[in-house]
Design goal:
By secondary structure, this protein is of the alpha/beta class. 41% of the residues lie in helices and 16% in strands. The protein has helices spanning 8-23, 51-54, 57-60, 63-68, 70-86, 91-101, 116-120, 147-156, 182-194, 213-219, 246-259; strands at residues 27-31, 107-110, 125-127, 130-137, 143-145, 169-173, 197-201, 223-227, 240-242. It has a 6-stranded parallel sheet, with helices on both faces. A hairpin with a 5-residue loop joins strand 4 (130-137) and strand 5. Helix 1 packs across helix 11 (246-259), helix 6 (91-101) packs parallel to helix 11 (246-259) and helix 9 (182-194) runs parallel beside helix 10 (213-219). The two termini are 24 Å apart. It binds zinc ion. Zinc ion is lined by residues 137, 139-140, 142, 162, 164-165, 167.
């Protein structure tokens, strides 16, 4: 099935974005939940389908609630963990991986915990909100590979326990009220300060502190491209702002950069 042709303003935006990417020397991408909705992973904020429309984030996914009521967190995580395990990258992830492989993109900073960038072939991925590959005991801080625990958990709902002390294992994802992982966060800020182009894709730039990252790039004179379904606070300052579906816009941009 051939998708309908994009509206003229999207076509013009794609062309300008491709021109900027071709002339950039150090382009960096910043991605959020909007990139993975086409892979079946729900966006935290989209009206109607967003996870937080149905759940109070502070009640299930804050650090404090995790400590007092891990059952609520794991109840929330279980369907999400199954979706992440089954999800495959979509055309937007693939477009970013192709741009990196062609030397047009230094790497990706992502708010997503789903590892779809890596599955698509991206090599340099900074996961500033953590990931579900590893988990840490909240009592003795022992760190383990999360895979076997999550598989078991998805199968029978048993809350993962530390093999050392029996404490609850918390997947290494950042909860509300929790600091970002120090190393990835430092690297992300450095990447934003040294890039000459920042491509924001599938993020509404609403979650702090990540939402401030493009400002670091702008302050150093970098160009900014934003591709997102909804407007962001930075659209007014972006060189190019395309409001559209990342899964069709990103491949169109990559195609023009790589084959024009
Ligand atoms: Zn422990």
């Amino acid at each position: 099935m051939t998708p309908p042709p994009p509206p003229p303003q999207v076509r013009r935006g794609v062309g300008r974005a491709a021109d900027l990417l071709r002339s950039a020397r150090r382009a960096v991408a910043l991605t959020g939940a909007g990139l993975s909705t086409a892979s079946g992973i729900p966006d935290f904020r989209s009206a109607g389908t967003g996870l937080w429309e149905r759940l109070d984030p502070m009640a299930v996914a804050s650090l404090t609630s995790f400590r007092y009521n891990p059952d609520a967190f794991f109840g929330f995580l279980r369907p999400l963990a199954s979706q992440i395990a089954l999800a495959v990258p979509n055309a937007a992830h693939q477009a970013l991986a192709r741009l990196e492989q062609a030397g047009r993109l230094v790497g990706v900073i992502t708010q997503n915990i789903d590892q779809l960038h890596q599955k698509a072939g991206s090599r340099r991925v900074l996961e500033v909100h953590g990931n579900v590959r590893r988990a840490t005991c909240i009592v003795c801080y022992r760190e383990v590979e999360a895979g076997p625990y999550l598989d078991q958990f998805i199968r029978d709902g048993a809350i993962p326990r530390c093999p050392g002390c029996g404490g609850v294992l918390k997947p290494n994802v950042i909860l509300f009220g929790e600091q970002l992982p120090e190393k990835s966060w430092q690297q992300a800020q450095a990447a934003c300060r040294s890039c000459d182009l920042m491509l924001v894709a599938g993020s509404s730039l609403e979650v702090l502190p990540v939402a401030k990252l493009p400002m670091l790039a702008l302050d150093r004179g970098a160009h900014v491209i934003i591709v997102n379904q909804a407007p962001t606070y930075l659209n007014v300052r972006a060189d190019v702002a395309i409001m559209g579906d990342v899964a069709s816009v990103m491949p169109a941009i990559a195609e023009q950069v790589l084959h024009a």
